[in-house]
């Protein structure tokens, strides 16, 4: 997969612009809504400024509700991206729905609405999809493929390598799993340890750590960076972040240090997911 001219490692900074979308759907109270509002109000401008300063193109998975509620933020992402080689906008539900709890018809209607919205704001169909909560029903990725996406970024079967999504796996509690056929859709794997949310956001019900010191997260992300650099030539390291989470000052300082550490390694580049996926599909 790797060619002599290919980067040693590609790092993709991805931002899920959840903002108010899930809180609105759940009817959450004012504090939770204000927590989401921090994203477009403070987090996104800070992130865009950092990406501009570092000339880094990024991928933004945006719920339709965020694109529609904050049109000036949407415009700012597209405008700021022009200077950084262009940011990518992918789909992330409309109200950050849990696809595993919806019928195929309901999921299809949401995907259609989201694709139309991204087309409206960017002038082109989205290439990438990330399921809200990384929650998928058995039919979801077939629907994502049918709606014209070239990749999804919600599964965990690999880390630094893309793979093709299979359809029709069969699992049984009394026999072996049989695997279905690979489809067209590429998978860009994700993982909790490369996501800001489980470390930083209070989630007592899950028993997960929260409000972690950034130094701890930087140690983990740096460990992934160096391992991928040493052991996965030509690979992709995908980091998932949320503007209302990473946008807090002490975490932005960590993100700046992470970027500096990656840039100090010879042969590391930052790129959008769609471009990396396109090269992988063509190879
Ligand atoms: Zn999300």
Task: Describe, in short, the structure shown.
The chain is of the alpha/beta class.
CA-CA gap between termini:
6 Å
CATH superfamily: Glycoside hydrolase/deacetylase
Q: How many domain regions?
A: 1
Structural category = alpha/beta
Mean pLDDT comes to 94
Number of helices: 11
CATH topology: TIM Barrel
Strand residue content:
5-15%
Output the helix-strand order. EHHEHHEHEHEEEHHEHHEH
Describe the structure.
The chain is α/β, with parallel strands linked by helices. The protein has a single domain, classed as Glycoside hydrolase/deacetylase (TIM Barrel). Helix content is 45%, strand content 15%. The chain has eleven helices and nine strands. Strands 1, 2, 3, 8 and 9 form a five-stranded parallel β-sheet that branches. Strand 4 (128-129), helix 6 and strand 5 (151-152) form a beta-alpha-beta unit. Helix 2 packs parallel to helix 4 (71-83) and helix 8 runs parallel beside helix 10. It is globular, with a radius of gyration of 18 Å. The protein starts with 8 loop residues before the first strand and ends with a helix. The model has no long low-confidence stretch (mean pLDDT 94). Zinc ion binds next to loops.
């Amino acid at each position: 997969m790797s060619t002599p001219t290919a980067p040693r490692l590609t790092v993709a900074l991805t931002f899920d612009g959840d903002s108010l979308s899930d809180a609105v759907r759940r009817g959450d109270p004012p504090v939770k809504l204000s927590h989401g509002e921090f994203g477009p109000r403070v987090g996104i401008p800070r992130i865009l400024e950092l990406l501009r300063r570092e000339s880094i193109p990024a991928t933004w998975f945006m719920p339709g509700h965020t694109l529609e509620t904050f049109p000036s933020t949407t415009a700012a992402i597209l405008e700021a991206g022009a200077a950084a080689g262009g940011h990518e906008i992918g789909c992330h539900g409309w109200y950050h729905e849990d696809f595993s709890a919806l019928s195929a018809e309901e999921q299809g209607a949401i995907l259609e609405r989201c694709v139309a919205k991204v087309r409206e704001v960017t002038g082109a169909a989205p290439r990438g999809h990330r399921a809200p909560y990384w929650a998928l029903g058995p039919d979801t990725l077939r629907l994502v493929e049918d709606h014209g996406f070239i990749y999804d970024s919600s599964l965990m079967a690999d880390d630094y390598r893309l793979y093709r999504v299979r359809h029709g796996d069969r699992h049984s509690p009394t026999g072996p799993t049989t695997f279905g056929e690979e489809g067209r859709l590429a998978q860009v794997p994700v993982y909790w340890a490369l996501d800001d949310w489980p470390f930083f956001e209070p989630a007592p019900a899950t028993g997960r750590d929260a409000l972690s010191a950034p130094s701890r997260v930087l140690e983990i992300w740096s460990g992934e960076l160096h391992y991928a650099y040493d052991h996965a030539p030509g690979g992709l390291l995908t980091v998932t972040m949320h503007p209302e989470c990473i946008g807090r000052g002490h975490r932005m300082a960590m993100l700046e240090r992470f970027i500096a550490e990656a840039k100090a390694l010879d042969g590391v580049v930052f790129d959008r997911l769609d471009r990396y996926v396109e090269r992988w599909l063509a190879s």
